[in-house]
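Chain X:
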Amino acid sequence: MTTGNGAGTAGGGAMAPTGIERALSAAVGAGSADAVVELLARTRLYVLVARLHADIPGWTAPLPMIRDESTRRTCVPVLTPGMLPPWHPEWVFRAVSLGELARTWPYDVRRLAVNHGTPYAAMVDARPGRLKAWLRAEERSGGREHGRLLTDSGGPLHGPLAHGLALGAHLAVTNALVWNRLGAAYEDYATDRARLRSPWGIPHRAEYRDRLASLMKNQLVGRVQEAVLRTRQTLAARLGHTPAHEEWSEALARTFSARDADDRALAERSLHHIARYEERLRADGALAPDGRVDTLAAFDLGRAVNVVRLALGARYIDPYEAEQDVLRVGELARGAYSSWTDFSLGYLMARIAHRAEDDGPEAAEATYRQSLAEHRILTQDPTSPYRNLPWS
């Protein structure tokens, strides 16, 4: 294993775009081929594909090949997440795992060129024996990492655009995707388009515009759940303090007295779920003793940012349109919340309450643990945008 251009060492070159490139550079600098493979086995890798080819149904373009002039060897080039180039309408990317590369490897190629020609490059041995080591490494790693905060040092880090993108950081952490990028891919071209189709029902640009408008108006988070919280908020404003559970329940019964039976039942269940998980959050130190969640709008607004990024990756919109959409979402979020912590708790509560309603308490328990872990990453990690960006 060697660096592609002699610069991929732990101590040299400019600051790496993300922690992945920093870790790769350190492994290369230490001369550890096994450490490089172990890292790549946990990392989403990308290959360049012409959009014309990517749009052919049921066909996967063969792996690209380049010639490395320093070694005069043919290589398969891949990129790590921080090294994707700017968005282009006709060139897209396919995400691959190290194991997938091993299983589809061209029989006459002996090198994998990671980030070729950059300061964060590695030339990885791809002879048949090493391909087996790639598969073993992927099996040990369990696949790509999740629950990780990734920041692009060259992406927006300050100002309104960074603020808007940070609203989507929960899902970025969930999937270990860079949170502050409007670029060539969100996850990858095919996946971005597939995610827009399901669960979002967005097969084209016009539907994207309609669905984004719904998210910006908080029409998908649940009108009954929002009414449950508004009832408590209104009562708290009148009383001058957060009402007791019984007071809230009685006010809710009055609010929903003219609604149909299904809405009344859903309201009662939602009150129970929200009250229960607020207590859990207080016990776990994530919510102040006198704190409460007043709106679940964060869930729609956070998802709206990710839908924008998916649409950009799917080539339904261009970077300028995506930027304007993210800025509009940011304005709405600042009107609905007063801090990153409140926004994050609103997102977390919506996710848990919906899971409890849809799939039951046992399923919600796993969602609670995962969501709380991600909330803590975003509110406690010193590199998090929630620690480095002012809310207003």
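Chain Y:
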Amino acid sequence: MTAPVARSTIAAPAAASAAAAPQGCTNLKLRQLGRLVARHYEAHVGPTGLKNTQYSLLSYVVKLGPLRAGELAAAMKLDASTLSRNLQPLVDKGLVEVGLGDDQRSRIVAPTIAGQALRDEAKRAWKRAQLALNRRLGEARVVALHALLDEVMAVLEAGEAGEG
């Protein structure tokens, strides 16, 4: 059962923010929210032995792989060094393999059978986390949040493209 969310609780902050200047640091607020949400997911996914970042990465590899490391980094919006650093624990656990690509510089990332199985288990835990968060926040609020986040990312990405 979804918690009822009055339309005014979603629309009111947007209307109020139009009349007032932003207060505080957006980066700080996003990092605080990110930590709260990460703890929520970690409580569900952590028992599988994966950290949130590892689950996300493994999910991308299972869904898109095998693929070149550069393609994986682009899909996840990561730089190459961050991807490499985050892949290593999955490689060490035998969940992902990194092999040679078409040339000496490229690498192909693929899930192992063990990686696919653990991702399936972790996906069930992730689903429980998502449903619990939806219940706690209310589905309407989550939909509105996702829409706002998608819109903000698109604006920021368009700005980055224009800066180059």
